[in-house]
Amino acid sequence: MPELPEVETVMRGMSNALQNRIIQHATVHRHDLRWRIPASFSQTVSGRRITSFLRRGKYILVRLSGEMSILLHLGMSGKIVLDSEATPAPHEHVTFHMIEGDRVAYVDPRRFGALGLVETAAEETHPLLRDMGPEPLGPQFTAATLLAACSGRRAPLKSMLLDQKIVAGLGNIYVAEALYRADLHPALPAEALTRPAAGKLVKAIRTVLREAVEAGGSSLRDYVRPEGDMGYFQHAWRVYGRAGEPCPRCPGPPGCMGVERMVQSGRSSFFCPRHQKTG
DNA sequence: ATTGTCCCCTGCCCGC
DNA sequence: TGCGGGCAGGGGACAA
Fold first, then answer.
1. I want to staple A13 with a disulfide (CB 3.0 to 4.6 A). Which of A92, A224, A236, A272 is the partner?
2. Cis previous bond, A109, omega within 30
3. Which residue is nearest to the C1' sugar atom of B10, using CA?
4. What distances in angstroms separate CA A191 from CA A6, A162, A202, A231, A233, one per listed residue?
5. Nucleic strand B near CB of residue A78 (< 7 Å)
6. Which of A55, A58, A63, A181 is catalytic?
7. Phi, psi of A255 (to 5 degrees)
8. Residues (55-74, chain A) with CB within 7 Å of strand C atoms
């Protein structure tokens, strides 16, 4: 589930619990995640103090003393479990043993996530981060930059928004929600995006992400517990996962038959055919 | 360069 | 109760 708001929430939870604390040592139970966890991982992080956290797109950077950073991606099913049990849980791939005696676990059943190391000074030039687009909640993400990225592109608008090089942190859920709020069809050719529509879309993206971060914040503890679910924002989804349900802004049949699902690049898109037109 | 397809992996839910 | 099929929040590797 982790898209920008969930990653932000996880990072805040980690920051609250782990800021300024020292990793006594780390145990890697499985190295083969999305990429191999470096063999030096355990030795490198051991004995270092956690100094700060930064989110970049869907990545979390855990800054350690000695100018070293852990680069973390949760993939589809990654979780950080605070106060984990002494016996590693199923799919617990890394255990951080803190000097106070408690443990922090990285759990990821599907193993699409990643854990790596990067010198703090080299974060920006790391191959996984250097080509990443602007933060959608930051000043660099504007209608003008989005429009420029879409110009001459015949691929669906949805694909542009999922492309982390164009804008960082959006995933399948928030793209659907933002396109709905901006009255734009996910299959609209990107090059057909008009200036006013781009402005509306940028606002919609910002608004939905802010709302979700706030909602995540209210259920912060859930994200970092083993029983954690997706938090409260799922109740606020207007179209995602709601095929067949009424569009919140439609009067209902016969004018609108409700939210539709379509498949693009093998992934589900949800939209209201009455509000979101291709033309 | 751009675009679309396939694949990685495990768990869960549904229908039979 | 068991089993097969489809689906899932991400994103890299390909081929055309």
1. A224
2. no
3. A110
4. 30, 16, 16, 35, 31
5. no
6. A58
7. -60, -45
8. 57-58, 73
- Whole-number Å distance between alpha carbons of A117 and A88: 23
pLDDT band at A257 (very low <50, low <70, confident <90, very high): confident
What was the pLDDT predicted at A115?
Answer: 98
Residues 6+ apart with CB under 8 A from A267: A172
User: Rounded mean pLDDT of chain A?
Assistant: 92
CA of A220 to C1' of B1 (A): 42
Position A273, amino acid: P
Structure tokens at A118: 């990067």
The answer to whether the beta carbon of residue A165 comes closer than 7 angstroms to any atom of strand C is no
Q: Give me the catalytic one of A2, A134, A136, A186.
A: A2
Give the pLDDT confidence of A191-225 residue by residue, as tens digits: 999 999 999 999 999 999 999 998 875 544 445 54
Which two three-digit tokens encode residue A71? 């680069």
Query: Is residue A2 flagged as an active site residue?
Result: yes
Scanning A54-194, the segments in alpha helix (DSSP H) are: 143-150, 157-162, 172-181
Q: What gap in Å lies between CA A218 and CA A63, rounded to an integer?
A: 25
Model confidence at A231: pLDDT above 60: no
pTM of the model: 0.95
